[in-house]
């Protein structure tokens, strides 16, 4: 219990550098895979591990890998999703900044498993300095024979590049990411075809989150079965949680999946309780897109069982009383937080980040923001709440990519669990104390 | 007006970048090259700069405009030497990002989106920068400034002012070691 | 071949056919409305979401229903697939939602819009929308611009269907306009003022489903229902020369490509799309330039040509009563 897999060497001074990383057992998974395992065997270990995508959707990684089309004579690509822009999520940055070689190692082992000879790490533009850290690590890996032609004297060759983005949340969506990597606007593609069949440059492609790829290293080193022993049920292994908000100890925590939420929030090992002795009001458990839950429902499920930090337990009760693990962006709010204002902040975010391709998301996100604004301005009406509810329902499930859903769910959840707060604002505008929300218009640059 | 042409060093880098991709896919280098161009030509992308990038890459100008206008890190209007980008999203907002922004507005005597009269600072509010655990935070050039309070903001502004240098995303001599 | 059933009508179609194409083969009521798809433009469709349909059975092999409505214009049929369009009330409600989204920032300036009477959005709103708006904020506006001597771009009316961009990409040599910015401030533009000048650029006007791209040589000359369309042709070195002349008496008011019932350009007898060149469209405005073939057979399904002046309430009830309009500081700020 409580063994760290990804951050185990985090405390070692100089672990950023190749020499220290290697001395502490780094690159063993590449050696093991390339020298002693077939590509299928690596995929098999990942399947056995039960690893699920850490980027948000939680799709089983081994299964995703086995879907990759392998037409002869056509290149395949592995692309690492380091776009990390979901509000409340900062684990990938932490990992890449502190232990860059872990990601590089994971990329090599995973690329080997998929038969990719060129791979890219797509990193958000704001992380320019992190991209430099990765590039330095890649240079070191080339210099030591882990990248390039005939790795460890085998038939296998791999080139690895860091590709920089330029500020667009939507480029975290895998097909938008591929468009961006092709030098275009980050407009999500219309599926089918899926990237496993036609992804980057029309070739079969796997897109995986930074943490997912890093987890391949301990899986190959210790075996998938060993990894699957950690965690609970179908939530195997460890997960990096980005904890932020009104807590005493914000930061990145590597937890065994299955830790009780209550322990996670209140134990000194993790968040250390609510700041300033305040009462605990609500949590957004998996990045801004997932439904917000009030304190009682995040600590216990509707059935009264303790809620655990796992895919299944957080989702228990569906959206009526549950939420999602998502990307693991755990945002805690204390009693002074205005849910309506917070919702407006999120909705503004989605409005700002909509790519604008499809009508429900392009038009609906802005509309919802304006209505929330009207309520916060003291001009709301009771029917505004129903209108918001109706609009979010008309966006959800009607769009090209899940950003539409991500914009709709927070609105639905806030109304579902905190309707009385909206009503109070509308009935009694004076209750909107100290309304700080003056960025009403996008700062989108226009020509 | 200054002649729009990459320095020899940047040009070499640009050429190298275009070769990183498979045959015929060099358009992939557009975003990295726009970053280089923005850093080199005063922190923003004028139509002339974008046309120049299009000609260097041998693509249509409109393809560059489309991309440049999509991504929020590309400035299509002139900006001050230091672009101060304050995170305004969730956790930062919960922990006082608005106070930081208001403070900066007062201190620099500009509103969000504007540039100070001496051309030194432009203030911008941006979405989550992946530093929510150290909120509130802001970014200037490549650097993150985290766990902010108003004193830290004051100290930062004074330092930037006295240095008087342009800050860009790309100017990173060495990865910072921890 | 694949058998697909749409609203109870079964049809057998070649593999790879989309649901929308299959529905068009059946015809009539089962055809979902399409605002962005254009069969003659590759990679078109998927954006507007008006053609959403409900797939109640995925295929013979995997009969599970699809969890969400799908864009019929971009979803290929599977053997044994069952689809609902007009027969699913929840789908019609979802579609009404899409129509509402398309309209909230539309200026609704039909009385002064050249497209009125042949506007796909007008038809769509009439058939699938609500008869009032729930949107009480100021609408998005843009400056009108001339892109070249002959084409007016009125971005405020645009629904971002991307068709004109695909025309420029696929049938002209060298695209100078495109989609700029993102989200709800996206716009079609050349960025720096530039003329879209190319032998085939005028076809952008024909593919535009709304009045965003209009023919400057026809601007404000006449309402479309006051001019009579006749088929005509000429021997043109650049294009097929097969057009529709829109005439009042002996005067040619405008020239367009010939269109089918879905407002798409008709194919020429050799099976190629009947795009026309700018010379035919803008410069040949005399009857003597043309050989008239006879009155055009056009599908008069549009709102105005059918004299559908009576408003019908939609089958599903709108959720809300009209809410009181209160000016917010948001609107006040926008007025400044
Ligand atoms: C709007 C949107 C934003 C996303 N952002 C990210 C992101 O920043 N990082 C990420 O890894 N996945 C993100 N995803 C999920 C990816 O589309 C994709 O599922 C993921 O990269 C797959 O990797 P995984 O299987 O390893 O999780 C996003 C999805 C959507 C719809
Ligand atoms: S849902 Fe939003 S972000 Fe996704 S494709 Fe549609 S407009 Fe773009
Ligand atoms: S919320 Fe400010 S960095 Fe994430
Ligand atoms: S016509 Fe299918 S989405 Fe627009």
Question: What do these coordinates show?
Answer:
The complex is a heterotrimer of chains A (447), B (178) and C (336). Chain A is an alpha/beta fold and 447 residues long. In chain A, the strands form three sheets. A five-stranded mixed beta sheet of chain A has the order 8-7-11-9-10. Chain A has a four-stranded parallel beta sheet with strand order 3-2-1-4, sandwiched between helices. Chain A has a two-stranded antiparallel ribbon with strand order 5-6. In chain A, 43% of the residues lie in helices and 12% in strands. Chain A is globular. Chain B is of the alpha+beta class and 178 residues long. Chain B is built from seven helices and four strands. In chain B, helix 1 runs antiparallel to helix 2 (30-40). Chain B is elongated and about 50 Å long. Chain C has 336 residues and is α+β, with helices and mostly antiparallel strands. Chain C has a five-stranded mixed beta sheet, with helices on both faces. Chain C has a four-stranded antiparallel beta sheet with strand order 13-12-11-14. In chain C, helix 2 packs across helix 3. Mean pLDDT of chain C is 88; it is low at 307-336. Bound molecules: flavin mononucleotide (FMN), iron/sulfur cluster and FE2/S2 (inorganic) cluster (FES) (2 copies). Residues 34-37, 45-51, 71, 73 of chain C line the site of one FE2/S2 (inorganic) cluster. One FE2/S2 (inorganic) cluster (FES) binds next to helix 5 of chain B.
Give a quick summary of the entry:
The complex is a heterotrimer of chains A (447), B (178) and C (336). With 447 residues, chain A is α/β, with parallel strands linked by helices.
List keywords for this structure.
heterotrimer; B: 178 residues; Arc Repressor Mutant, subunit A; Glutaredoxin; 4-stranded mixed beta sheet; elongated; C: alpha+beta; Ubiquitin-like (UB roll); Alpha-Beta Plaits; 3 domains; 5-stranded mixed beta sheet; 4-stranded antiparallel beta sheet; 18% helix; 19% strand; globular; binds flavin mononucleotide; binds iron/sulfur cluster
Low-confidence residue ranges of chain B: none
Helices of chain C, by number, come to: 7
Strand content of chain B: 5-15%
Number of domains of chain B: 2
| Strand coverage percent of chain C | 15-25%
Q: How many structurally independent domains of chain C?
A: 3
Q: Structural class of the secondary structure composition of chain C?
A: alpha+beta
* CATH superfamily label of the largest domain in chain B: Glutaredoxin
The shape of chain B, in one word, is: elongated
Assign the CATH architecture of the largest domain in chain B.
3-Layer(aba) Sandwich
Indicate the radius of gyration of chain B in whole angstroms: 18 Å
């Amino acid at each position: 219990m409580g063994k760290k897999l990804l951050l185990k060497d985090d405390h070692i001074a100089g672990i950023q550098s190749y020499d220290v990383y290697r001395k502490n057992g780094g690159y063993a998974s590449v050696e093991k895979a390339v020298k002693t395992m077939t590509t299928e065997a690596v995929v098999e270990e990942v399947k056995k591990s039960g690893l699920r995508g850490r980027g948000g959707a939680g799709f089983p990684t081994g299964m995703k890998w086995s879907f990759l089309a392998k037409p002869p004579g056509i290149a395949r690509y592995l692309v690492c999703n380091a776009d990390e822009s979901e509000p409340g999520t900062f684990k990938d940055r932490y990992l890449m900044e502190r232990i860059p070689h872990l990601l590089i190692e994971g990329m090599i082992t995973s690329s080997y498993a998929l038969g990719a000879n060129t791979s890219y790490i797509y990193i958000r533009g704001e992380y320019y300095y992190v991209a430099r850290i990765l590039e330095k690590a890649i240079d070191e890996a080339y210099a030591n024979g882990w990248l390039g032609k005939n790795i460890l004297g085998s038939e296998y060759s791999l080139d690895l590049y860091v590709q920089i983005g330029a500020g667009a949340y939507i480029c975290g969506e895998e097909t938008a990411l591929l468009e961006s990597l092709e030098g275009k606007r980050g407009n999500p593609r219309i599926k089918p075809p899926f990237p496993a069949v036609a992804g980057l440059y029309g070739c079969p492609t796997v897109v995986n989150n930074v943490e997912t790829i890093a987890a391949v290293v301990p899986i190959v080193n210790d075996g998938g079965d060993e990894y699957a022993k950690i965690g609970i049920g179908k939530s195997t292994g460890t997960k990096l949680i980005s904890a932020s908000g009104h807590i005493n100890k914000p930061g990145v925590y590597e937890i065994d999946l299955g830790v009780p939420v209550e322990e996670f929030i209140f134990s000194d090992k993790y968040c250390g309780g609510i700041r300033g002795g305040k009462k605990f009001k609500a949590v957004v458990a998996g990045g801004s897109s997932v439904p917000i839950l009030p304190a009682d429902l995040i600590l216990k499920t509707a059935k009264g069982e303790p809620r655990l930090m796992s895919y299944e337990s957080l989702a228990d009760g569906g959206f009526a009383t549950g939420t999602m693990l998502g990307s693991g962006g755990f945002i805690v709010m204390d009693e002074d937080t205005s849910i309506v204002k917070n919702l407006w902040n999120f909705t503004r975010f989605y409005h700002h980040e909509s790519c604008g391709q499809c009508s429900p998301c392009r038009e609906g996100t802005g509309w919802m923001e304006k209505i929330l604004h009207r309520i916060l301005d003291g001009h709301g009406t009771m029917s505004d709440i129903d209108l918001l509810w109706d609009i979010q329902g008309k966006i959800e499930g009607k769009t090209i990519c899940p950003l539409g859903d991500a914009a709709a769910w927070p609105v639905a959840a806030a109304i579902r669990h905190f309707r009385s707060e909206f009503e109070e604002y509308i009935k009694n505008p004076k209750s909107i104390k100290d309304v700080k929300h003056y960025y009403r218009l996008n700062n989108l640059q226009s020509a | 007006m200054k002649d729009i042409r990459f320095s020899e060093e940047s040009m070499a880098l640009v050429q190298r970048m275009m070769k990183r991709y498979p045959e015929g896919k060099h358009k992939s280098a557009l975003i990295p090259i726009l970053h280089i161009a923005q850093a080199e030509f005063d922190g923003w992308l004028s139509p002339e700069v974008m046309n120049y990038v299009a000609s260097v890459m041998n693509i249509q100008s409109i393809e560059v405009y489309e991309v440049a206008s999509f991504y929020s890190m590309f400035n299509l209007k002139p900006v001050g030497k230091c672009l101060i980008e304050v995170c305004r999203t969730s956790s930062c907002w919960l922990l006082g990002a608005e106070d930081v922004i208001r403070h900066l507005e007062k201190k620099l005597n500009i509103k969000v989106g504007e540039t100070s009269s001496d051309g030194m600072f432009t203030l911008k509010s941006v979405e989550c920068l992946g530093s929510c655990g150290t909120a509130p935070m802001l970014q200037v050039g490549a650097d993150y400034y985290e766990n902010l309070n108003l004193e830290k903001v004051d100290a930062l502004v004074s330092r930037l002012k006295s240095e008087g240098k342009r800050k860009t995303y790309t100017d990173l001599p060495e990865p910072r070691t921890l | 071949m694949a058998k697909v059933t749409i609203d109870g009508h079964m049809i057998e179609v070649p593999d790879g056919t989309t649901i929308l194409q299959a529905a068009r083969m059946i015809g009539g009521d089962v055809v979902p409305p399409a605002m962005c798809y254009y069969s003659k433009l590759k990679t078109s469709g998927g954006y507007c979401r008006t053609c959403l349909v409900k797939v109640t059975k995925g295929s013979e092999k995997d009969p599970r229903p699809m969890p969400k409505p799908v864009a019929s214009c971009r979803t290929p049929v599977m053997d044994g697939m069952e689809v609902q369009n007009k027969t699913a009330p929840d789908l019609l409600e979802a579609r009404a939602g899409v129509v509402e989204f398309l309209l909230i920032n539309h200026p609704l300036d039909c009385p002064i819009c050249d497209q009125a009477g042949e506007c796909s959005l007008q038809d769509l709103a009439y058939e699938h929308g609500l008869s009032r708006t729930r949107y009480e904020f100021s609408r998005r506006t843009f400056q009108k611009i001339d892109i070249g001597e002959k084409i007016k771009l009125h971005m405020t009316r645009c629904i971002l269907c991307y068709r004109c961009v695909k025309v420029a990409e696929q049938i002209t040599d060298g695209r100078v306009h495109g989609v700029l910015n993102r989200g709800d401030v996206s716009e079609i533009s050349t960025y720096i003022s530039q003329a879209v000048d190319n032998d085939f650029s005028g076809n952008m006007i024909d593919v535009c489903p709304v009045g965003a791209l209009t023919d400057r040589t026809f601007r404000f000359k006449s309402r479309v229902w006051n001019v009579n369309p006749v088929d005509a042709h000429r021997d043109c070195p650049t294009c097929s020369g097969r057009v529709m002349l829109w005439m009042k008496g002996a005067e040619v008011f405008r020239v367009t490509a010939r269109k089918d019932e879905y407002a798409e350009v008709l194919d020429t007898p050799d099976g190629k799309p009947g795009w026309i060149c700018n010379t035919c469209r803008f410069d040949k405005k005399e009857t003597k330039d043309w050989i008239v073939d006879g009155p055009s057979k056009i599908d008069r399904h549009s709102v105005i040509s059918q004299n559908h002046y009576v408003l019908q309430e939609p089958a599903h009830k709108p959720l809300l009563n009209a809410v009181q309009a209160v000016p917010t500081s948001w609107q006040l700020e926008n007025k400044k």
